[in-house]
Amino acid sequence: MSVENAPVVDVDEAAIPVEKKMYYRFESNDKKEFRVSELAIQQSETLNRLVEAMGYTSEDVENKPAIAIENIDGKTLKLVFQWCEHHKGEAIPVDDGSVPKIVEIPEFDAKLMDIDNGLLFKLIWAADYLNIVQLLNVSCKKVANMAQGKTPAQLRRVYLLPSDEEDEAAKRAAQEAQDPRAREVEEEFEERKRQGGNSFF
Amino acid sequence: MTSELSTIPFIRLPLDVKHNVISNMDMIEFISLSILSKSMKVLVKLYGCKCYFFEVVIRQECFVWIKIWPNSYVFTFYQTNDEQTNFMNHNGLRIGQHQWTSTIVEHFTMRCWLKHLLFIFNFNSIGLRIESNTGNLESIINTFDGFKLEWLAFGDIGEEYTKNLLQNLPFTEIFAHRGRIDPTVYSEMTIQNMHLFCSNVNQGVTLSDILLNNSENLEVRQSILTPKELNRFLKLWMNNFSNPKLKSVLISLSEDVNRFNIDDFKNEVMSSISYQEILGQELWQHYPAWYQRFFQRIPIDGLLIQRKDGTKAAVQLCINETVLFHMVLLP
């Protein structure tokens, strides 16, 4: 039958199934669960690739266990997903190489990051791990702003930076910490030699 | 009472994050971080901020001009104590109103600062411009000893001062001067294999000086050469009697521009030389990239000549503020 001869059918538009927004479920390392929209997930390159690879349907999302993010705690993950939901649909920024980088912290982000530095530190790690470029940019900008107007000595205190002497001492301590193992290997080698074997193996 | 500073363990951040933080810092914090320890200096360097222009200028004080896309920065050396009078021994560095006075940089000298800036900005050579003869010679020589000088440019600083500097500073491939140079020293300079030799003063350069100059590119301003001598130069070049390394020559004549008209100038310079006319736009695309970057001139039409061995060159003649002769070899 040609297209011209096909029967005309009245279509009830309300009957057309509307594609549902998909919400993925994630679980932090302290077992807190979060429901995050598909669009918000696109802000994270890591999670976006993960859900793409999983190929979940709407049913899978509801029925299968939440996707575990084992190295981020609930408090941090909540901030991350709040940020992603607020910025969903926005383009991922591309670095143009200018120095210093031009990054502005929007009001929402500034409020979100009005947290203690311990949590900010975790948030940065999370943004880096989940590869959320703009969240990383604004959180790094916040850390960079902490250096503004500081003398080098103050900067050392703000960033908890060791001096050359402290770096040397830490290096020596690390070497000394390795020495017992090296000594054990040496002793074993000597023992084998005493037993008559020439080869360590 | 000391105010509490908000702290964050910067070194425990991943390397790419540390670099992201650094990329958000402005120049003052960037340098402050780099002087805190050897490891921070390396971290800042590894961030990969690269300058493309690094010039040290010596006038009544010494300053460094650095260009990093898309900005340009001027750092000035200043005196950190009242005892020091020789400005070449100034050991403090400042940018705008900010100066680094921390005990961390107490031992820094001008030389240390220059090495440090070159290191963190991933650059390895300095352009040195000396525009005053008030800087202590020995200090200048000691400060720049061992540095790779990309270019050396002298203002009108006196023959003796120029001579001392030239005899003691590292060799450079680009040299420019605006003051007269002792003729013996000048001859010694011209026989060096330079990339660019620029004389911006009435040095009394003769046709022989031009022919003996070993540089690839030669620029002579306020020359006493006549159009007839330029004609001789072209004929000698066409017969292979000039510097074989030569790639371009620019000569401005100290003639009165009102006394000349372009046709007479052209007739005298090109007398008995066969040539073809070539459009400026066409010429411009044959010029080497470095030349276009340095001169950025609006191309004018040229006259195409040919050497015995087949090498082609374009001659451009122009009269506006000065009487200008320009010859460039074409690839």
From TrEMBL, chain A:
Renumbered to this chain, the signal peptide range is none
Record's Gene3D superfamilies? Potassium Channel Kv1.1, Chain A
Q: Specify where the region named Disordered lies, as residue ranges.
A: 166-201
The question of whether Acyltransferase is a record keyword is answered with no
Source domain of life: Eukaryota
InterPro entries cross-referenced by the UniProt entry = SKP1, SKP1-like, SKP1-like_dim_sf, SKP1/BTB/POZ_sf, Skp1_comp_dimer, Skp1_comp_POZ
Q: Where is the SKP1 component dimerisation domain?
A: 134-178
- Which GO BP terms apply? protein ubiquitination; ubiquitin-dependent protein catabolic process
Sequence ranges assigned to domain SKP1 component POZ in this UniProt record: 26-88
Tell me the route in metabolism or biology where this protein functions. Answer: Protein modification; protein ubiquitination
One Pfam match, given by its short name, reads Skp1_POZ
Composition-biased stretches (Basic and acidic residues): 169-194
Q: Which UniProt keywords apply?
A: Ubl conjugation pathway
Q: Does the keyword Ribonucleoprotein apply?
A: no
**Similarity field:** Belongs to the SKP1 family.
Instruction: Say what the protein does.
Output: Probable essential component of SCF (SKP1-CUL1-F-box protein) E3 ubiquitin-protein ligase complexes, which mediate the ubiquitination and subsequent proteasomal degradation of target proteins. Regulates cell proliferation during embryonic and larval development.
List, alphabetically, the PANTHER family matched.
SKP1
Q: Spell out the protein name for this chain.
A: Skp1-related protein
Q: Which organism is it from?
A: Caenorhabditis brenneri
Please name the taxonomic classification of the source.
Eukaryota, Metazoa, Ecdysozoa, Nematoda, Chromadorea
From TrEMBL, chain B:
Q: Please state every residue range assigned to the domain named F-box.
A: 7-56
Q: Write down the superkingdom of origin.
A: Eukaryota
Q: Name one Pfam family in it.
A: FBA_2
Bilayer-crossing regions? none
**InterPro entries linked:** F-box_dom, F-box_Sdz-33, Zygotic_Embryogenesis-Asso
PANTHER family to which the protein is assigned, alphabetical: CYCLIN-RELATED F-BOX FAMILY (PTHR22899), F-BOX ASSOCIATED DOMAIN-CONTAINING PROTEIN-RELATED (PTHR22899:SF0)
Query: What is the protein's name according to its record?
Result: F-box domain-containing protein
Q: Which organism is it from?
A: Caenorhabditis brenneri
